[in-house]
Queue: 4 jobs
Job 1
Amino acid sequence: MSRIGKKPVEIPAGVEVRVEGRTVTMKGPKGTLVKSFHPKVSIQKEDQTVQVALQGTEREFQPLHGLTRTLVANMAEGVSKGFRKILEVSGVGYRAQVQGRNLVMTLGFSHPVTYTLPEGIQAEVEKQTVITLSGVDKELLGQVAAEIRSYRVPDPYKAKGVRYRGEVIRRKAGKTGK
């Protein structure tokens, strides 16, 4: 049994939860999320908590217990508070701007890079070098941040590129080995 999976998920005030079979729907002030889970995991709503239980004892399904509980907890937090990821653009001439649903970035290529934001993700740009992504779905937010970062991963020599805030880039010495 998973220690994390055993803990009940507390539902914040203002969040409405509906469990229908293996599908969980959460509606809150920030938005609505719907997610289906594996049939070997049962989910029950009790008052202001959600309890996740594993059906059966097969070893291959045990990791699903804690995973499902964490996904339900992330849904509850997302629809009540939302999630944010902050990306920093560093390099001479590197910058970003939002144009409608597009994020247009100048990253040292011969052309600007345009990324269309998916539905449910908002972007703000401060000082042309700090991109703040926000949304209710933690999984989608992380995927969008990773795709934006993949356009210009920070290089280890000059640390130019797009990185997460707080990410440490291990610097290498140049050719002279200084």
Note: The chain has two domains: 3-80, 83-164.
Job 2
Amino acid sequence: MLLDQAAARSTIDAISLGLLATALGSTLLLRTEAFVRLLVFQGVLLATAAGAVALSAPSLHAIAALLVTITVKAVGVPVILALAARRLGQHGGTEIILSRKLALVAAVALALLAYYVTAPISRAAGDLTPNAMPAAVSLVLLGLFTMTTRKKALVQVVGLVMMENGIYLAALVVTRGLPLAVELGVAVDILVGVIVMGLVARQIQRAFAIVDVDQLTVLRD
């Protein structure tokens, strides 16, 4: 054991706060490339959390899970989204239906709601760090918030990935490492999903010359 359980829990707790901070900060972002960089940072943090689990309980499974996390979350998904943004020409601003100040207030309210809802779970499970589950639920809620408040389809994909990052963090802290088959299945699922959504956004742009969700709704009507 290279890292004792107390140190691993402390590391994961600090990483959870970092992930929560990135999710809250996403409400202030205006450019597509900034969202891609945010996913890179979240991927690095999740890989660090997986590394803490691997160091506290070394095994081939833990090391494989760490490598999968780095490959998919810190490299694969951000690269695919960056390439999709380049092809779509979405390196500029991303419209938001709320002001950034109001969006930040709403995001903080959602984070507080996550802490309120998960407080009984954290108290009941003595081996959970105090901020891990609230941060995981906050990522899910704030990812959904990003999907509902942003008009560009590609940024909505970022919100979906953020939700998946929250689910992954919750699974990581509860199980101390998912079974390898599940890890691989989830990784392939999110990677293929992002590729498909990028291709769909490209086809929509070719057909309608736009990927703004509001304008696509008008076209439907």
Note: The mean pLDDT is 81.
Job 3
Amino acid sequence: MVSINKVYQTVLAVANKEQRGYITPQEFNLFADQAQMDIFEQYFYDLNQVRRIPGNSTNTADHDDILEEKISIFHKSDVNTAISYSSDEVLMNQFTDYYKILSVRVKYTNFADFVEAEKLSSNELTKYLSSPLAKPTFDRPVYTIYNSGQYSTRANSTVRLKFYPGFSGSTASAKIDYINKPPKPNWTYIAVNEKPLYNSNAADHMDFTLHASEQKKLVIKILQLAGITIKDYNVTQFANQEEVKTIQQQKS
């Protein structure tokens, strides 16, 4: 984890060496959440790119391992949930921290073990269901993901897993491995002489949950966002220069 107070104090020191009023705690917390999510979502893009780049297998493996280590912090395994036997579905929105599904196993009534279900797109599912040889069975189940409701974002969508074959009115359960979203960071404080004083004992205090090596990236990204808000080109320029340096160091 990364201390939110260390990041906050560094951001303030760079953004304004004399005054603390340029970036309020409320603004910082908004920037912090955006910066953390930007870095978190970049992991998956970078991992995909690393695995597609031909070349030195050792370097590729090293970068792959580093990214996997950073992502593993958010890995939740064998999360149990009931499957609705009336609809053969699991409602993913019950997991408020859900971000990306890794694997799904299901247990049918009268079967002793959980069986891994294969994920299919809606187009693939149609082909499977119409094929006598590829049709899903209790030993070889499949599932598809869909959003119900007219929503534009995952946060507001009703994300469902639909299983085939169905459960014929019997009870069933699933074990899901997934990547959870990092919780929102929150720099908490009390006001002393109209100035915010850090309070790590607040109930809603939350450090960054990213890998400890991401502290510098967090500072840079927050400064980029803050520079735009306070209309200070020097802050934005400094953050951009530091970002370039960091990228060059990672590639060297």
Note: Confidence is low (pLDDT under 50) at residues 150-156.
Job 4
Amino acid sequence: MDRREHLKLLLTGTIGAGFIFTQCTEEDRQISEEIIENGGGYGRTPEEVERDERLHAQSFFTDEELRMVDHLSEIIIPADEDSGGASEAGVADFIEFMVKDIPSLQLPMRGGLMWLNGECRKRYGNAFLDCSESEQMEMIDEIAWPDDARPEMAYGVRFFNRMRNLTSSGFFTSQIGLEYLGYMGNRPTFWDGVPEEVLNQYGLSYDERTLEESVRPESRHEVAEWDENGNLLR
């Protein structure tokens, strides 16, 4: 199993365990796209929108640091035959926003990048980005596997764990990551009842009222109306 599949399973096996992937109509898709284009439409307050805009207008990482973040994220989730990688997904920009949104991340992230450059200079005579690919991966292997890391690598291990968590969060919430997961989002769907073969397996069936009120595919676009006694009007 490659690292992308491993991260995918970690995500879908925890926070994504309840996702159900169902079909949606083209109309549903167009409505969702219009909502996104018009600023979200998902409960954002004006204060939250203003704060996000303010954070987006600021910078934290230097150009070199941002290149390092981008390169490290691509090492963690590289492009493959199924989709683009973390770099194409814009994970570096996501991490840049997160360290501004959560200031407590700033010192450990900047310190981790400085530590990585310092270790590479001691070993190879160059900063991380100026090292060869084999040298970079040799260094990453020292901190990517916590159980196997030497005690003196503890600071680097903590940094890379944080980097890996942020990269996973950024990638799997990006458009590329969501398409890779096959996640369609919170879209309206239809319920056609329990499959007939399952009902037959347990010797069950729907009564006529339930079929009429709840399991009529031809009426799925109608808005139900009920009287004060709970009887279906249409």
Note: Residues 194-234 form one domain.
